[in-house]
Each structure stands twice: as C-alpha cells, then as structure tokens.
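Box 3.1. Reading complex inputs
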Amino acid sequence: MAYPYRDEREVRILSAHFGDPEARTLAGWRQRGGYEALGQALALSPEQVTEIVKNSALRGRGGAGFPTGLKWSFLRNDGRPHYVLVNSDESEPGAFKDRELCRWTPHQLLEGALINAYAIRAQHVYIYMRGEFFEPAQIVARAIDEAYAAGIAGPDVLGSGVTIDVTLHLGAGAYICGEETALMNSLEGRRGQPRVKPPFPAVFGAFGQPTNINNVETLCTVPHIIRNGADWWRSIGTDKSTGTKLFNMSGHLVRRGNFEFPLGFNMKELIYDVCGGIRDGRSLKAVIPGGSSVPMLAAHELDIPCAYERVATAGSKLGTASMIVMDDRTDIVKQVRRMVEFYAHESCGQCTPCREGTAWLARIMRRIEAGQGTEADLALLVDLGKNMTGTTICVLSDSAAAPVLSSLAKFKDEYLALIGRAAPVAAAV
Amino acid sequence: MSALDGVPGALARLEARQALGRPAPNAAPVRFTLDGNEITALPGETILQAAARHDVPVPHLCYTEGLRPDGNCRACMVEIAGERVLAPSCCRYPTKGMQVSTKSKRALKAQKLVLELLLTDSPEPAPGVDSELNRWARQLGVSAYRLPRRAQPEPDLSHPAIEVRLDACIQCTRCVRACREEQVNDVIGYAHRGSEAKIVFDLDDPMGLSTCVACGECVQACPTGALLPVLTQAPGERPRPERVVESLCPYCGVGCQTTIHVRDDRVHAIEGRDGPSNLGRLCVKGRFGFDYVHHPQRLLKPLIRREGVPKDAMQLADPGRPLDVFREASWEEALDAAACGLQALHSSHGPGALAGFGSAKGSNEEAYLFQKLIRVGFGTNNVDHCTRLCHASSVAALMENVSSGAVSNQVSDVQYADCFLVIGANPTVNHPVAATFMKNAIERGAKLILADPRRTELARHATHVLQFRPDTDVALLNAMLHTIIDEGLANRDFIRDRTLGYEALAGMLRAYSPEAMQHICGIPAAEIRAAARLYATSPRAMIFWGMGVSQHVHGTDNARCLISLALLTGQIGRRGTGLHPLRGQNNVQGASDMGLIPMFYPDYRPVTDPAARAYFGELWGRADLDPEKGLTVVEIMNAALKKQVRGMYIMGENPAMSDPDVAHAREALAALDFLVVQDIFLTETASLADVILPASAFPEKTGTFTNTDRRVQLGRAALPLPGEVRQDLWIIQELARRLGLDWSHRESADVWQEIRRAVPSSGGITWERLEREHAVTYPCRNEGDPGESVIFTQSFPTPTGRAQFTPAEFRRGDEPPDAEYPLVFITGRILEHWHTGAMTRRAGVLDALEPLPMVSMAPAELAKLGLAPGDAVTVRSRRGSVTALVRRDPAVPAGSVFMPFAYVEAAANLLTNPKLDPFGKIPEFKYCAVGVERAATAPGVAGYGIAAEVWAGGEAEARAEGPAAS
C-alpha cells in the first residue's frame, strides 16, 4: 500500500507497513515477523545486544547522529535503577517521521524500546510523546496494553524472567521538552528546561538515575538490526551513515511525505525525481535539509549525498532529514523571521543568550522586515547569532541563530533590499 | 583537608555543606592550567571557585556561594582546550591537565554579550544598590546599548519588609533556588518562558499577599537589587552602611551568625553570615527584627520607684511613660539603692530570702558572673532562669539516663540521617533555619516522622504524620517502644553492651501495645507500628523535640520515652543519629552550662557534691557556699507570695509574662519587699521593680553564646550604648562590689578565661580561637581539640559508662477539659514573635506582620460556636481570661485552642496552669482546660506603638489626629 506516495528506488524497512492498519495490531505485527528480534535479544546477554547495535554503526535519528551503540555502552551495570526514555516529542518544524512511525508501527517502536531496555538492564521504559500527538498516543497506548496482555511487556517479558514496564507519558506543548534533559525534567514533573551537562544522562538522568534516551526512529531500526545482523545494516548506506533513513519532505514540492532511502541517496535526485520537483513549475530557492534548526542550502548546493558527513561538508546538517524546500517566490527574510519567532516563543528562558538573544533576533528581524532596518542591524544579527552559538545549556539558541546566519550568508541581497525601504510586494505563501 | 588549615571555620562549613549532599566529582586536589598558569583546585572546587581563590575574576551572576550552581546566566563562560563549545565555569569541575582560558577572545566575547544583553533592559541601579551586573559590566568595559529597552514591570511594594522591583531582575533564579532549595519554602517560582519568563510569588500574587514567610533569603541572594529590604520609609532609598560587624542573631537557639550593617550608629540591615549552624541563612526575625534596639521606649537612665507609688499586679506601668511610676536616678544612686535593698534583706532575713533570675538571652560571661554573684554575694543557690520553663524536664531525663543535658548530635547531622522524628516541636516557626536543614534532608531522601497534636508546616514534608491527642505522648511513644520489642527490631548488641535496665522497661511495655494505645492517643495501631518500624530499621535515625514534649507535668516521662527509643534501637553515638532537644533561647544552653540553675554549679557539678563545692569555693574565694539546692523559677514565685523570698535581682527575664498563671506570678513579684530589674525596656516585670537598671541590648555587647548545637560563638558589639545605658557585665560587677565582693572590672574575654577553669568541657576554647573561627563546639577540653560534634560514640558519661532505661507509665495531664472548660489550651509561639514579645513587638516589620493577639481554632470548632475568622473571642480558664481575635486554622485539632504568648494585651499565661512536673519542675504550658465564647468587645490594637505606625498607616494617623482621638 502506497503511503502516501511510493517510489521504486525506496528501501522500505521501517516504513514497510506504513498505511497498513493490520500492522498496528499485535497479531498483525507478529504475522509480519514482529517480536522475533526481542526473543532473539533475550537469548543473548545485554552486552551482546549492545555490541550488535554498536557494530551496526547505527547513528541516532533524533538529529545529532550520535552512535547509538556507543551511547548504550555508557551505562554501567552498577545496581542502580536504569531507565529507557523514548523521545517521541517530535516538534521540530519540518519533522513528521516519528509521528508516522508511532501511528503505523507502534509495536515496531515497542520492540525496539524493549530490546533497548534489556540491553541496558532497565526495568522501565517511559515513552515521552508530544501532547499534540493525540491519535499516535491512542495507538501506542493500545499497543502497550496488547503487549502487557501478551506477556511482552511487564514482569516476565516473553517468559524470560526479565521485568520491563512501559509507561506512556504525554507532553504539554513545549518544544523544548524534546531536548533530552528538559524531557527528563518534564517527566519528573519539574519545569521543562534543559539541564547543565555534565553530568550526562548515562550517570544522572531521569529521577537522578542512569538513563538511556533514544529517538523513535532509532529504536524502530533496532529490531531489524537484531534480526538481520549488524553486517546487513552496514551494507546499506555509506560507511559513516549506515542503513536507511526516513526523509520527511515538505514545502513547495510536487510530492510531499515520508520516503525511506539508504543514507547517501542524492539530495537533488530526492527533490527533483522522487518528489517531482517544485510545484507550479517554479524554481527552487533554498532547502533546509534537516529540520528548521540547521543552516539552509542554496539551489546550487544540492548535488550531494544525504549522509551525515556529506551534508556537514556542504555547510549544513542532515539533522532529522526533514527537508523544507522553498521556491523562488519565498521571502527569505519573512521565513527566517517566522522561524526566529518560533524559537523565541519556545525558548525556556533559562540562559541569557537564548532568552534575551532570541527576543533580540526577533525584534531586529521584524524591524528589517518592516523596512526600518539598517546595515548596523545586519552586523548586530551576525554578532548576536555567533554568540548565541555554543554558549547555552542546550542548542535551542544555536538553532535560532542558524537560519539567521545562513540566510545572511546566502541571501544577503534579500536583506539589503529591505533595508531603508518598504518590503517587496511579492509575499510568500 | 589540609589545604583548609588556617581558613577560619572552613572545615566546619565544608563539612556542613558536604552534609547537604552535594558531592563534587573531584574528591582530591586537581592540577590544571588557568590562563596559562598551573594552579590547584581544592577538592570540590569548580573552575570558577578555583579561579576566584587565585584572584582570577570571572564574571558571574547566577552563581553565588552557598547556592547550587545553575549555569543559566552564561556570564562565566570559559574556553576549555579541545572542547567544541564554551563551558560555564560555575558548573564545571577541573580535571587533571585541563587547559582553561577565561580571557580568550571567544570567552570574553561571550561574557560581554551576556552583560550587554542584561544591561540593556536594566534600569540604573537604585542609589546604594551595589548591582553585581553593573560591577561586572564596569570591570569588562561593557556599556554599549544596541537595542532600545523593553517595557518593564512596576514595583511591588505590598510587603512590609521586602520591595520587589522586577525591572532590575535578570532572571538568574538565585532567589528561586534560595526559596525552594535552601529554605524550602517553595514560594518563589519561575513562570512563563523565553523573554516572558519572570519571577513570581505563588501564583503571581503580590508578595505581601503570598505565602512568603519573609526569611529574606531571596533578598540576600539577589545580585541586582530586584529584591530589596525595606530600609527606610521612602521606598527605593538605600543609604549605604558605614561599617559592618560580624555577630550573631539574638533570637533562637539555632545560633545563626550575622553581619550587622551599621549607619549613623543604628542597625541598618542584617545579613546572614556563613556560620556552621546557618550557612548564611536567616529567618524573618533574625533578618528584619533588629530595630527594637532603637525603639523609643528603650530605657536610657536608671530608674527608682517613686515614693508612695504602690506595686499593683493588676495595673502594670505604661512602658511608654515610665516616669509616672519611677524617677530618674544616677548610676551611683541606683546601684547603691539596689545593693542596699538586697543587702538589708540579706542581713534581716538571711541568704534564703534572696533569689536571682538570670537570662538565657545574655552572654555566657553575664550568666557566669550573675550566678557567681548570687552564690557568692547572696550566699544562696536560689538562682534560675527560663530554662526551667522550656527544657528543664528534658534535661532532667537526659541527666538521669545519659548524664549529659546537651544535645548528642548537632542539627546539621540531620543531613546524614535516613529518618528523623520531630515531636512536640514546630521548627519552621521556632527554629526556622534548623527547619531548613531538616527540609534539605528530606529533599535528599530522609524520611520524617512528625508527631504533634497540631498538623504543623513540616507535615507537608513528612512520611508519617502522627497527630496524636494532646497529653498522650507517653501512650504513643510507649506503643512505639512496644512495637520495636514486639517485632524484634531492638538492637540487642547495643542494649547488651551499652545500657542498663532493659528488663524493667520491657516488662512495663507489655501493657502498651499499639492496639491498646490507639484508643488513647488516637493514632491507628498500624500507623504507630509503621512509624516505629521506620525509625528502628533506618540505618541512621535522629530525634528532635521541643516544648510540646517538655512542658507537661509528665514532661520528664515524655523525654524518658524518647531516650529509650534511641537506646532501644542503638540510634545514638553515631553521625545522623541521637537526641536533640531543640533549645529555645539563643544562650539557654550556655546559661545552663554556666550554672545559672539552682541545683548545679558550672558544668553541671551538683551543689550538693562536697567536692564540687570545695572546687568552686576555692575558685571563687568563698568557703561556705550554700550546700542546699536552690529554688526553681515557679518555686521562687510561690516562695515570694509566702514571704519566704523577699528580694530579687532579675536580669533580662520577664516572668510577669512568661510564667504560668501569670496573674499569680505578678502578685508574687508585687509581694517582694525589694526587686531590682535589669532590662532594656520597662517590661511587665520591671514595672513591679523598686530599682531598674537600663541594660545593654544584644548588638551593643561582646560575649559568647552557646547554641543548641553546643557551639560556643562570639557575638560582637556593633553599636555604642545609647543614653546612660551600661554593659550588663559592668552592672553585675558594680553590684558585686557594693555587696562587698572584691571584684575588679573585667571584659568578656577576661571572664571567659575564668569560665575555662570553671567549665572544663569548654576549657580548650580560647578567646583568640573564637575571634578567629567565630564558633567552636564543645566538648573541647584541651587547646587545639577540634570539638566533638557527636558525643556518646564509645560510652556514656555515667559512672558505669552505660545509659539507663527509665520506664515511664502513662498518666494524664493535671487539668483535663470538662463541661465548664471543654477545650484543651495549647500555648506556643508564632514565627514573627519571640517569647514574651518584649523585643519583637517593638520591631517594626515583625509587629506589622503579626500585630494582633489571636487564638487559632479548627474550622469545625469555629462552626460549632458560630464564629467567623476575625471575630473577637474570650478565652477563659480557672485562672483568668483574655480577649483575642480568632483565626481559622485546620492545623489545630478539634477540641483544642492554640494561642501564642507574645501579646501583653492578651497574655496567654494568664490562663495557663502552674502545676509542675515533679522532676524537671517545669510547668504544664501545653495543656489546660479553657472555654471559648464570642467576646462582647474587640481587643484594641495595643503592642508598643509599632503596628499602628507601620501597618495601619493612614488609619492610625487619622485616629490619632481625629476629634475622636483621646
């Protein structure tokens, strides 16, 4: 079943059953090979499971691309309670992959989370889900109930004697709670604001205990890796970016939606062939390749493989592979102002450079957009933006600065056009 | 640790901090490179702290010593070689070989931008406010304003003590941490997010209407003057202090160290100092209750009763008009009159006709000389003080069973406890700073068992709340003891090796099963058992108690049960265990140590012990010291009425307010042939005096004070003596000379030298060390001893080295409720007022916060009587009646009434029962029978003229100026 579009070049592993309601049920999932990997994992030692994930060179799909197996191996078997957190607080503008994974393959997520818990000796999994995900939450909750009823979750997972409880927790509408330590604070009932690191979650995480937190997509890949082996996963993708990845394609494209490709797939091909190019016969102006918090790329910069290392070389980040494609009618200053306002609104208000800086950025952007900016404002944006990068507890501040700095580098003419005179008539959609 | 040698008191503070459960990753000294120089960070030091100690300034705003580093302001960013992003130096610990740059281009740029961002929206600091933001901005040359200021909120001036000016707020959240993490009052919050983020009180209420308890920790923490103490009547006016003096708080036994800010020879402000008992914290009394010393009613000249003006116990003198009753006199005349009056009674009626009350508010040196004067000059042991009214029964039980009346473990030990029992104490009100450490311990994971007839504030933090029926302490505690034996939880090794008398206790306890006692104490048996189990099975458990335990006719029995609890489980003699009777007055421990009690010489040597008598006879140069125990406080009053005691010298005590059945006490004082009172105000007691000697107030004197933790601390004079006021020490010595004693004039430091000989357990504490370290714990027998914070570690100071179990049978209080007096009357204190109110009701902020006498009753009782909160009620007992406003308080159990005794216009002690505990001779302040009715007329605003000025404001002025004013 095509969902919503399908391309024959896709390699569908995680998304194989998107659009198939039967795959949502436990029975349907089992018919499709579900929970075999969990059984296989339980027959191994926790360290062996972690080793397989390590060998697969899987990188976290939440945006940072940190090696998953390495992160799992940070947890020590020290007798303290351990926790697995599933980051399902997908809120990045442009990202909509975890939502679909939860909607269509809740058991795929559960299976990955249970394997994760077994591998780090956690007895409790908390799935922290974005509060607005009403439908996915209902689906995941149902899957959890099914898993408990079938002895997959709870006191004796698949008869192994291992206890793993699963709790679904809904967020309350703060973007910042997708940041892993803010998520932990929020889960504990505290104000949702990021924590200073170190100490890192592997030492001091949820409830002050060793914690391993992973993105939904990351965990969804884990059962496949356990079942098919690390070598199989490494045979897909590039050396440094193994396996497949969901690409969330949005913006002025003919075909939008989730597509699953091996990492390393060409970005230009993805946009122009798979997604059918730009709507209404327009041309492409800019792409934000990894969700709103990464630097934008201009039209001539797109002939690159979609792999973490290659997008980085091109001056941006693959991030969550949530591509926002903008056509030639787009008012870059307005788009950047909207993004900056989003971050100003979502800043937790903890660190000075972010709390004050995002507000300053927004005020300056509004001033420029209104035709009241000066060249000094552009210099101030750069000065501010640079100092908002790498100076705060979390990277929300960096994220707010990224579109400002990259648009100023690549589309400075649009800013200059606005300085000292009224805004151009042509407005974006 | 050695690196801390030579830093005064650093070790004690470090220990106290570490006890707060904030372990740092670097447990050993670390060598690292700071701006190119190799330096060593001490264990637990962050990069910022190490830099500061090496005089490398790194700007910082959200960090301050004593608060958890939060790392939010990002002003302290430094560059660490090999790291992609900058690091907040307040939160980062150096590692070996780390290369840190505080002044790299990138670090400086980040530091300056933070200052600029904050400075842009900040107002010019108010005059006299030393804003840390402006200081750092000056230092780093930041002044550029590249954006216009945003709109800022209006000031909130709704609180009498604290101004809230959020225009100066930089969202550093030091106040939030001070309120929530240090004091655990949970009033201040951080609301909204992004640039809308703001400091709020409760649900963004005006501060004056919030649940703020005005500890002022937030004010002390605020770096920019967004939270300020109200210093003058003109909001915003902030004169700078001319000098600061390191001293102590004059109120409770916690022993907070303070810094007194002085301007124009007046106390200008008080700040918490980093003492081992308070770590910089204070409460509302300590921080804002200082202006009593400047109250217009201060006695400035000696007074002598006018000829022919009778002493009227029913009509006390107006403290604002002393000259109606007294005439001014020179010191020469007043001292001569005082000495002659006492001397005459001594000659005519013998030493037993004289008695003295010293004070637990005075210094150790004053207490020591006072008791010496009474014993040597008067020749009697009739000397006592208010310890008799607070912990006499506790001390009796402790002396009986462990041979030491002081606490076994210090308050800060609660940080090591897994569980602690608080019974008959309301520390958030009466020992607020100690309560903060208890709450810190609970935050850290310790479990609290709270036992009290009232559901006090700590209940919010407790695991078990045992709200037992008043007067049934022994039933509850015996049931807990029974459970421990019954369930095999007793510590058999400890009982075998270190105690005596277990069999007798176990035998008696058989009848006290929780199932039998639940009907008496009102706590379900399962709950009693659960609490007993928790206490007994915790690795380390501690007991704190207060006057809810001691002030009963069975107060000694109550304390015996608590001692048995600790002995039965072996929860004593180790860190985080032990027995801690929370001492009331700032120097009640010291005054007792100094022998200001009728049965003991200094260091608790019995007056009946010939060896002790010989020792002190020699030390003091009088061979024929009185060999009999003297009379206690209430006994002296009774003896006065019977004309057995005819003359008294009272220094700093106010029995005319603090004694039970105070009408009787006033009659007794009025019946004296001759009374000399030495005090700072015309107290209710002084109003019955023949001679009044104007005394020095706390901030005017230098001396040592011993807190509840057995810590001897130095209070230093900050103010000159006003008017003709003299030092108490001078007055005592002048009287002594006139009584024929060959005493030369000595300062506190000299007197302390003698005390070291009289009190060997403090013999190792030198004055120089006190000046250097500010606080030393005893026992400290030899110079250089560190001082023992935990005692009884190996043995008890009894003849056998073992502690004793003393079984206590349950018996009822003296005066149970009946048809005519159907309610139980419980007296106590409130946060804002100290003891009889002589000081705090003359402190502007405190009297403004709680200006009116009140009784608290359960909502159900109010409903039964058809009363609404704020109605005037008359409370009557067999001994008297008072009128006060009624307060709705769900914490008070049905069938009871709670009343603070600080209000002269409705003195709760007119109602209390003077019946004494047979061992401790302590009266039953916590239990008598009363009736309550709606009053015909409301009580007027009385006090000492403060509330009307500060709180009622315009209304009071209108009243004063209006035609109806009389």
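In summary: Confidence is low (pLDDT under 50) at residues 422-429 of chain A.
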